[in-house]
Amino acid sequence: MSSTVLVAGSANLDFVVRAAHVPAPGETVLGRQFRTFPGGKGANQAVACARAGGADTRMLLALGEDDFARPIEASLGDAGVRLHVVRDAQLPTGTAFICLSDDAENAITVAPGANMALQPMHLPPLDGVQWLLLQLETPLDTVLAHARAARAAGVKVALNAAPAQVLPAALLAALDMLIVNEGELDVVAGHPPDLATGLARLQVPCVIVTLGARGCLARSEGRILLQPAFSIEPVDTTAAGDTFCGTLVASLARGQTLQQALLRASAASALACTRLGAQSSIPDHAEVAALLADTARVPGAAAHAALATACAL
After folding, report:
1. d(Cα 30, Cα 198) in Å, to the nearest integer?
2. How far apart are CA 197 and CA 191, in angstroms?
3. CA dihedral 102, 240, 86, 81 (to 10 degrees)
4. What is d(CA 1, CA 75) in angstroms, rounded to the nearest whole number?
């Protein structure tokens, strides 16, 4: 079986400033440290997939012809991601401006730039690809076209519906897996009164909802699966969701069950929250394996019961 994952999506250079708190509208906050980090949902997920081990990872991305592109390409290359780069001479490389507070919360504004240049025709050949992983930081028409092309080629399609937006039925019909957080579920499922209703409304074979510090749950083949979060002291949650998505799909590509993949993805995203930056925070296979080997830190039956209660399941 092929264990190749193609990620098609966004890549940004993140401009991060640390501050005591995220500014309110109209407020000026004096920040402290400032750094740049390679980021973007697509690129973050590709790095997470590659570092998870066991899955050959490729990425389709669009970059400008500028200096901002260089650290992004270097980070992806260092992680072992094979690149299919679309160059756009008219648009700058995507950027994100992030304020990170002392309690690990953040506020993010993205200038997509060249990410908006990614078109349906740019999808590379899918020979040998098992999973296509998509997000919503590139044009929606392109995301739909790529999903349909993958489905027609017999490739499984996973979409991380972030940033949140209402999705056309045609896109949902082309998915094998949908990954959302609670806020994204609310938008995509039409403001359901609870998690169970939201899951029931989405006609996708597998829907996964991440619940932050509580963990995650999945509805697959009529079953509900739960995975409590690992207990950590968060430093920066910027790429936690992306780490989860990339690790999850890589785990499935190399033949793990969905429950096993949820556990590994939860461990990886927990570790990512303990470090600064987006791609710089994503752990490798050995680090995740070490955490999973520490049985005292792996959530047990009590944590599963508490999560089930919190989810009203």
Report:
1. 40
2. 9
3. 120
4. 28
Give domain limits for the chain.
Answer: 4-10+40-92+114-310
Which tokens hold the place of 224?
């509900």
Q: Is 242 annotated as a binding residue?
A: yes
Element (DSSP H or E) covering residue 151: helix 140-152
Phi, psi for residue 277 in degrees, rounded to 5: 90, 175
Residue with tokens 């785990």: 251
Catalytic positions, written as ranges:
242
pTM attached to this predicted model:
0.94
Phi, psi of 74 (to 5 degrees): -65, -45
Closest CA to 15 of 238, 171, 213, 190: 238
Residue 75 · residue 46 · CB < 8 Å:
no
Q: Is 219 annotated as a binding residue?
A: no
For tokens 């430093």, name the residue: 235
Q: Please choose, from the candidates 168, 199, 171, the residue with its C-alpha nearest in 3D space to the C-alpha of residue 186.
A: 199
Read out DSSP for 54-75? Answer: SSEEEEEEEEESSTTHHHHHHH
Print pLDDT tens along the chain (313 aa).
458 999 999 999 999 999 999 999 999 999 998 999 999 999 999 999 999 998 899 999 999 999 999 999 999 999 999 999 999 999 999 999 989 898 878 888 999 999 999 999 999 999 999 999 999 999 999 999 999 999 999 999 999 999 999 999 999 999 999 999 999 999 999 999 999 899 999 999 999 999 998 999 999 988 999 999 999 888 888 789 999 999 999 999 999 999 999 999 999 999 999 988 888 889 999 999 999 999 889 998 888 898 988 888 6
Burial of 300 (0-12, 13-18, 19+ CB in 10 A): exposed
Residue 133 annotated as binding site: no
- CATH number, domain 4-10+40-92+114-310: 3.40.1190.20
Q: Is 241 annotated as a binding residue?
A: yes
156 is in an annotated binding site: no
Residue 54 marked as a ligand binder: no
Q: Is 115 annotated as a binding residue?
A: no
